[in-house]
Amino acid sequence: MSDNTMTRVADSDQPMYGPRTLLVCGYSADAQNAFLNMLKTEVKAPTPVVFCTPEDGDTLLSELVALPDGRQKGQEGKMPPAVIMSGITEKELKLIMNGWKTLGLPRQLWAALTPTSETWTLRALIRELQSEHMAMLKQQQQQQQ
Q1: Which residues are paired to 111 by β-bridges?
Q2: Which positions ≥6 away from 10 have C-beta within 8 Å?
Q3: Over the stretch 31-81, which tens digit does the pLDDT of each residue have?
Q4: In principle, which of 77, 82, 93, 107 could form an S-S bond with 25, CB 3.0–4.6 Å?
Q5: Torsion angle of C-alpha atoms 66, 90, 41, 80, degrees rounded to 10
Q6: HEC-encoded secondary structure of the chain
């Protein structure tokens, strides 16, 4: 499923691919509120956030990023914590990731919407991200030996 097009994030003010939306998965209600508050302080521009639940697993990412801001807020579901970013700038991406680190939330998966991934289901993307994460951890362990 991978299109092998990972690139290093720069500092561009150009919006990345897709409509301006963040898809957030696997957060408790408290973590959702902390994330939204962090967005208000770090990323000053309005940024729609769609909270995803396990029931969204078979939905295409292109459909999820089109859903209304605040959808499923407060709903918790057993999913791996993940944020899929669409239409934000690279500068905003860095602000979000740095802001998230200051919240002290557990490790999570990060992705940016691409022309390829928007045709995937949420479940397929999360599986791919988990696979990539495990491969990176294995590579780091091998380098440490």
Answers
A1: 84
A2: 90
A3: 999 999 999 998 888 999 999 999 999 999 999 999 999 888 878 778 999
A4: 82
A5: 60
A6: CCCCCCCCCCCCCCECCCCCEEEEECCCHHHHHHHHHHHHHHCCCCCCEEEECHHHCCCEHHHHCCCCCCCCCCCCCCCCCEEEEECCEHHHHHHHHHHHHHHCCCCCEEEECCCCHHHCEHHHHHHHHHHHHHHHHHHHHHHHC
Distance separating alpha carbons of residues 76 and 53, to the nearest angstrom: 7
Contact 121/55 with Cβ under 8 angstroms?
no
| CA distances for 115 relative to 29, 107, 128, 145, angstroms | 31, 26, 15, 38
Residue 22 has, within 13 A of its CA and on its CB side, a CA count of 25
Question: Count of CB atoms within 10 A of residue 46's CB?
Answer: 9
Tokens read off for 139:
């590579």
pTM: predicted TM-score of the whole model, two decimal places: 0.86
